[in-house]
């Protein structure tokens, strides 16, 4: 008699490194007494459907401070190629015996664990199974980005991707092939708030950092488990804050 299906092991991997052309060392900038990466890890650990949080950084000496931070927090850290991020990412997932992988990036300290849980609920319940699903940034501010994928799809990309673009950005090999992989997206919670527009809640520039710092300092003292909608409420009360990074142009994926 066959027993119940074993729950897949879900590993969330955040990519982080000190190198950044527009804001070097951004993931370790301090707000409210903690580096931004610590704020992100604290939030990722609250995602109830995630079994393990891992930081994937490069093996360059410049990224030693990230590895040191991980040791202090007791969070797993995997180090690999700086340029071949797909190789680093897949090896980190293999080292953690992942069945399902969530991908986020270390410059998103406002990442919402509830959204990640909703994404995983969608991914894990899909029938037929999905290979990849993402938070649709057309409906959510940039900085809440997350992708879920099967290890089968990730390993196919790892073994077969040849284009530098597909090695650097991890998942394009998957989502550019809808004829081969089953793709999904997390729909908005109710009607998408019109005023969100193209808001940026990630940290890629000084202007981005000014906005994220204000949100963290406003929300953390009274509500350390704030959600993305709490951020939205703050920005409704302070519409001028949105102007801080309104003119920042997102770097294209090239």
From TrEMBL:
Pfam families: CTP_transf_3. CDD domains: GT2_SpsF (cd02518). It comes from Nitrospirillum amazonense. The lineage of its organism: Bacteria, Pseudomonadati, Pseudomonadota, Alphaproteobacteria, Rhodospirillales. It comes from the Bacteria. One of its GO terms (cellular component) is cytosol. This is Spore coat polysaccharide biosynthesis protein SpsF.
């Amino acid at each position: 008699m066959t027993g119940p299906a074993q729950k897949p092991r879900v590993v969330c991997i955040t990519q982080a490194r000190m190198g950044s052309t527009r804001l070097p060392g951004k993931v370790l900038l301090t707000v409210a007494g903690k580096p931004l990466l610590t704020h992100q890890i604290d939030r990722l650990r609250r995602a109830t459907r995630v079994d393990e949080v891992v930081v994937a950084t490069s093996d360059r000496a410049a990224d030693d401070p990230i590895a040191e931070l991980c040791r202090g927090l007791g969070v797993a850290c995997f180090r690999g190629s700086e340029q071949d991020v797909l190789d680093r990412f897949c090896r980190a997932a293999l080292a953690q015996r992942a069945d399902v992988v969530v991908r986020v990036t270390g410059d998103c300290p406002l990442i919402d664990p509830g959204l990640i849980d909703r994404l995983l609920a969608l991914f894990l319940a899909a029938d037929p199974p999905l290979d990849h699903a993402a938070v649709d940034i057309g409906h959510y501010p940039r900085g809440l980005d997350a992708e879920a994928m099967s290890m089968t799809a990730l390993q196919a990309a790892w073994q077969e991707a040849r284009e530098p673009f597909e090695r650097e950005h991890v998942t394009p090999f998957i989502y550019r092939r809808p004829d081969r992989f089953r793709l999904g997206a997390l729909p908005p919670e109710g009607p998408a708030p019109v005023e969100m527009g193209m808001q940026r809640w990630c940290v890629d520039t000084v202007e981005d950092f000014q906005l994220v710092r204000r949100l963290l300092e406003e929300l953390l003292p009274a509500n350390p488990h704030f959600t993305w909608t709490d951020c939205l409420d703050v920005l409704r009360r302070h519409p001028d804050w949105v102007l801080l990074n309104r003119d920042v142009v997102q770097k294209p994926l090239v």
